[in-house]
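Predicting holo structure, succinic acid bound.
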Amino acid sequence: MTYQTMDVRPLAGALGAEIYGADLKARDDSPMWIELRQAFIEYHVLAIRGQDMSQDDMMRVGGKFGEPCFYPFAKGMEGYPYITEVIKEKHERENFGADWHTDTMYLEKPPRATLLYALETPPRGGDTLYVNTAAAYDALSGGMKKMLEGLVGVSSGGLKNKKGGDRVAHLSRIGSMTSQNLDKATAFESRHPIVRTHPDTGRKSLYLSCLHTVCLDGFTEDESRPLIKFLNDHCTEPEFSCRVRWEPGQLTVWDNRTTMHNAVNDYHGFRRRMRRLTVGPEVPV
Ligand code: SIN
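Done. Tokens:
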């Protein structure tokens, strides 16, 4: 694809692009929006540099990718119930979004896209890693692809497999984020195909994570764990990955249908403050 309204610079072989020169305050009839959505499908992760965005701007840009979704475990901002602040303070050790995952897959209709806007970033570190789960699917053997046909993953919001404790333990250590629904975390449970098909491209991708997928439907957790771990490890191989570095005024938008991500917790002693919005509730098929 060639782009006329923005400068698109690929970040890695598998996925990801930096976008320069895009005007996210452009009128609704600007061809920029068509190109932005094309780049989103082509690259899966867009790091859009040099933006000055209010919450209203973020809601407007989010609307170009779908209807807003509530994040169940953190309260929204005053007047903006769909936007949550993702903050790690200088004194905190735990961050939000560590461990490979795709966003809120324990919901019946997980979001198509996530928008994350950087307000304050550490002088070094605090990058986010992404992998292309469609490329990971393509690289599997024919035998494995056949075996995965029809398998359904059961995913839970409880974070029971997270190192260091479950959802309650995890969010209670992130004091600067206003958590909610922690007592109901395990009630957020979904059943989605392990191999999903992208509605726009028809491309298949793997849809699971060790963090959220507790078992395969109809199998015990012990029986399921080795296959879930194998697929999670396979997806997160370096050749399927890219690394997004942050700077204030950067909006990164990613496709949860074809990616997993991991927020690297390597910036103790520095503050990182972002605004997060998920959009496009969609039943994975
Ligand atoms: C997330 O997992 O949605 C947050 C990622 C990040 O803070 O880099």
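The two ends are 27 Å apart (CA to CA).
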